Amino acid sequence: MPAFPAPETGILLAHFVVTEDIARSRDFYADVLGGEVVSASEHAIVQLANSWIIMNTGGGPTDDKPTVTLTAPIPTRSAAS
Questions:
Q1: What is the pLDDT of residue 75?
Q2: CA of 18: how far to CAs of 1, 3, 60, 80, in Å?
Q3: Buried/exposed code over 31-66 (b: 16+ C-beta within 10 A; e: otherwise)
Q4: Which helix (H) or strand (E) holds 36?
Q5: For every one of its 81 residues, what pLDDT tens digit does the chain have, with 9 covering 90 and above?
Q6: Domains, the chain, ranges and CATH?
Q7: Are 35 and 75 a contacting pair, CB within 8 Å?
Q8: What is the pTM of this model?
Q9: What pLDDT, on the 0 to 100 scale, is given for residue 11?
Q10: Sheet-wide strand order for 51-56
Q11: Sequence-distant (≥ 6) Cβ neighbours of residue 53 within 8 angstroms
């Protein structure tokens, strides 16, 4: 497991990505962009430079927000398609 990328100067970023295909997203950030997989369980975390890319499938409503569901974006077709 890589060490926490705490920079000596500057900032550390964490990005949360909601995806329907965690394995595909994890492989993109690791294999295409050169990140290092930190966690590959039911969610995924990839270290990329001074950042964490955290991937999850979302989830249903909670007690405090009973009408809110977190889901992956629905793909739309571009006008050129």
A1: 79
A2: 23, 24, 13, 26
A3: eeeebebbeeeeebbbbbeebbbbbbeeeeeeeeee
A4: strand 36-40
A5: 556 656 677 788 899 999 999 999 999 999 999 999 998 888 999 999 888 999 999 899 999 999 999 998 887 877 665
A6: 13-56 (3.30.720.120)
A7: no
A8: 0.76
A9: 82
A10: 13-18, 51-56, 44-48, 36-40
A11: 15, 17, 29, 35, 45, 46, 47
Using DSSP's 3-state secondary structure scheme, residue 62 falls into strand
Token pair of 45, please? Answer: 């975390």
Distance CA 13, CA 4 (A): 12
Give the model's pLDDT for residue 1: 56
Q: Which two tokens stand for residue 44?
A: 């995924």
What does the alpha-carbon distance between residue 4 and residue 52 come to, in Å, rounded to a whole number?
9
